[in-house]
Amino acid sequence: MKNTIKIERAIAELTQAELAKKISVSRQTINAMEANKYVPSTVLALKIAKVFNKPVEEIFILDELD
Amino acid sequence: MKQKLLFPNKYKRLGWLILIPATILGIFLMFNNFEGMRFITKVFAIIGNENLDENKYFTFVKADITNTVVGVLFIVGALLVGFSKEKNEDEYISNLRLTSLLWAVFINYLLLLFCFIFIYGLEFINVMLYNMFTVLIIFIGRFNYVLYRNSKSMSNEEYN
């Protein structure tokens, strides 16, 4: 699964730490998701979508391997 | 996603304070064939035998409890270190924890399998002895290494 968190974060002018705080996770989690090393739980994906005010599927996109 | 089966974060520190001296004592005992210190006392035993005679059940026996004390301290310390929450415990950290645990059990049994096949006779007692602790050791080592590697890869990207 790919995601556009990094881009959305740039648009919203949020640092990793600020986004982490908003959705109460560690900065490592944001970092790992942006590096495509971690697929978040549904709860976390929904929280992220809420912060950026977009539907989940605009931020998280399936790729060919899924 | 909340992990309920973990100790609060402050116990991790306490765990290290117990685990480190226990490890040093354990290594000391190891190099002295487990005869470097003696601390003989009466203890309650569910099953016990003094001087290799008949088993006694649910009674007090005389025993050297040095190994018991060091072993107990080691296990308690290792449990606290391995199963206390991180300061920033969240679903990703939990994921790393569980992956490390899987990794540790798997590696541990590969090692044991190797020893099973290639070590014979009395020496196998040593294998059993160390194997009591290796799952915890490998788990703690792996988990803390992964956490360290993660925090390191982050500090490289200062302005994110």
Oligomerization status of the protein chains = heterodimer
Tally the helices of chain A. Answer: 5
Estimated share of beta-strand residues of chain A: 5-15%
Average pLDDT rating of chain B: 90
What is the end-to-end distance of chain A? 7 Å
Number of strands of chain B: 2
Reported for the largest beta sheet of chain A, the result is: 2 strands, antiparallel
Characterize the biggest β-sheet of chain B: 2 strands, antiparallel
- Counting helices, strands and paired strands, the structural category of chain A is mainly alpha
Q: What is the count of helical runs of chain B?
A: 4
Q: In percent, how helical is the residue content of chain B? A: 55-70%
Principal-axis shape of chain A: globular
Largest interface: A-B, 17 and 16 residues
Order of helices and strands of chain A: EHHHHHE
The residue ranges of chain A in which pLDDT falls below 50 over 5 or more consecutive positions are: none
Report on the architecture of this protein.
The complex is a heterodimer of chains A (66) and B (160). Chain A is mostly helical and 66 residues long. Chain A has helices at residues 5-12, 16-22, 27-34, 42-52, 56-59, and strands at residues 2-3, 60-61. In chain A, strands 1-2 form a two-stranded antiparallel ribbon. Chain A is globular. The mean pLDDT of chain A is 92. Chain B has 160 residues and is mostly helical. Chain B has helices at residues 10-31, 66-82, 91-118, 124-155; strands at 40-48, 56-64. Chain B has a two-stranded antiparallel ribbon. The model of chain B has no long low-confidence stretch (mean pLDDT 90). At the A-B interface, helix 3 of A face helix 3 and helix 4 of B.
